[in-house]
């Protein structure tokens, strides 16, 4: 799916991404390959990001590129917790609240120091199993974080 980088994706487009970006399996090796692909994409763009892949409560991959800070790791944890709780991309969760005329922070009743429905964390959804983890990027504006993850997932799943 090609999206215009100038436009904000609709909820329907975000849901379509989740339906399309599903794994047949997800191993330690897959985490390494996907994480390395994200590092490569980020380096090409000189993006000051941190990258994280978790599966079933275990960190399988982490990288902090030049310009990233410890704050990015805190954002990663908060965005990943949204994916773990809602089973959807952190950007989609935030968009659903915005579509209702509110914000995640105002209406979720969850601690904003623990949860952040900002773009950049995407569920690792395995066919026939469900959401088993998350791949997360932090360091760019939230829509760019989301798009970087989606681009890497598309490339990984198309190989």
Features:
four-stranded antiparallel beta sheet, 6 helices, UPF0303 protein GCM10014715_69310, 18% strand, PduO/GlcC-like_sf, Beta-Lactamase, YBR137W-like, PduO/GlcC-like, 159 residues
What does this structure look like?
Pfam families: HbpS-like. InterPro entries: PduO/GlcC-like, PduO/GlcC-like_sf, YBR137W-like. Belongs to the UPF0303 family. It comes from Streptomyces spiralis. By secondary structure, this protein is of the alpha+beta class. The protein has one domain (11-158): Beta-Lactamase (2-Layer Sandwich), CATH 3.30.450.150. The protein has helices at residues 11-20, 28-44, 70-86, 90-99, 104-107, 142-158, and strands at 50-55, 58-64, 121-126, 130-138. It has a 4-stranded antiparallel beta sheet. A hairpin with a 2-residue loop joins strand 1 and strand 2 (58-64). Helix 2 (28-44) packs across helix 6. The radius of gyration is 14 Å and the shape is globular. 39% of the residues are buried. The model has no long low-confidence stretch (mean pLDDT 96).
| Total DSSP helices | 6
The percentage of residues in β strands lies in 15-25%
**Spans with pLDDT under 50 lasting ≥5 residues?**
none
Major sheet summary line: 4 strands, antiparallel
CATH topology: Beta-Lactamase
What quaternary form is this? single chain
What's the CATH C level?
Alpha Beta
């Amino acid at each position: 799916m090609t999206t215009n980088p100038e436009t904000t994706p609709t909820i329907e487009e975000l849901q379509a991404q989740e339906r399309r970006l599903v794994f047949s399996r997800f191993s330690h090796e897959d985490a390494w390959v996907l994480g390395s692909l994200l590092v490569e994409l980020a380096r090409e763009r000189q993006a000051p990001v941190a990258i994280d892949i978790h599966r079933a409560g275990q960190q399988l991959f982490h990288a902090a590129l030049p310009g990233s800070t410890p704050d990015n790791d805190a954002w990663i944890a908060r965005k990943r917790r949204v994916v773990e709780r809602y089973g959807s991309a952190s950007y989609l969760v935030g968009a659903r609240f915005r579509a209702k005329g509110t914000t995640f922070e105002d209406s979720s009743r969850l601690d904003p120091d623990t949860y952040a429905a900002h773009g950049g964390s995407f569920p690792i959804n395995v066919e026939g199993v469900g959401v088993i983890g998350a791949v997360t990027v932090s360091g760019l504006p939230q829509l760019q974080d989301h798009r970087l993850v989606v681009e890497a997932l598309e490339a990984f799943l198309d190989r």
